[in-house]
Amino acid sequence: HSKKRPNNLIIGRMYDYHILDMIELGIEKFVALKDIKNSKCPEGTKPMLIFAGDAFDIDEAHRRLKSLLIDFFRGPVVPSIRLAGLEHVLHFTAVDEKIYMRSYKVLLKKSGCKIPRIELEDMGPSLDLMIRRTHLASDDLYKLSLKQPKALKPKKKKNVSHDVFGTKYGRIHMSI
User: Fold this and answer.
1) 13 exposed, middle or buried (CB, 10 Å; 0-12, 13-18, 19+)?
2) 3-state secondary structure string, 3-71?
3) Given Cys at both, which of 41, 78, 100, 127 links 88, Cβ 3.0 to 4.6 Å?
4) Is the CB of residue 52 less than 8 Å from the CB of residue 92?
5) Are 170 and 160 in contact (CB under 8 A)?
């Protein structure tokens, strides 16, 4: 909190030991998690992210903010997802110059068919944000930061396979 720019949230990321993107968001309204008396999700739950509003696709600052938020809230990559594990939604809405962040708990209700009926219950926290200042990387530097070196991609070895337990099998071709 400062006198000139009160209630700020600054989000950023680095590339090659330099700041790549940094966005300062002004918090205009804040409702804490404890202020909403509904049930909460367990700690460490990976949220589903929803971005609504044309600004996230059109405006460059909003597009980079979307990328930053995805990087921040994404969590670990998982091989599969169970339906009951989808219990937290973070919803970001861009309207005019404001960004509304809402957090919901997913409730799976019984329905007449196999697929459950889904309801969203406000869980908190909720924020009304406004982009104040941005420090965005140039397009060339941004594209360079997205490239992955070829050394990180493992080469496929021919005639080598693994089973579910991690045992390595090799196939040998012999001619007599």
Assistant:
1) middle
2) CCCCCEEEEEEEECCEEEEEEEEEEEEEECHHHCCCCCCCCCCCCEEEEECCHHHHCHHHHHHHHHHHH
3) 41
4) yes
5) yes
Q: Are 24 and 134 in contact (CB under 8 A)?
A: yes
- Which are the contacts of 51, defined by CB distance < 8 A and separation ≥ 6? 66, 92, 94
Question: 48-52 and 88-95: which strand pairing?
Answer: parallel
Tell me the pLDDT tens digit for each residue of 94-137.
998 899 999 999 988 888 888 888 899 998 899 999 999 999 98
Length of the chain in residues, anyone?
176
| Gyration radius from the chain CA atoms | 22
pLDDT in tens, 146-171: 887 776 666 778 888 888 787 888 88
Q: Is the peptide bond before 76 cis (omega within 30 degrees of 0)?
A: no
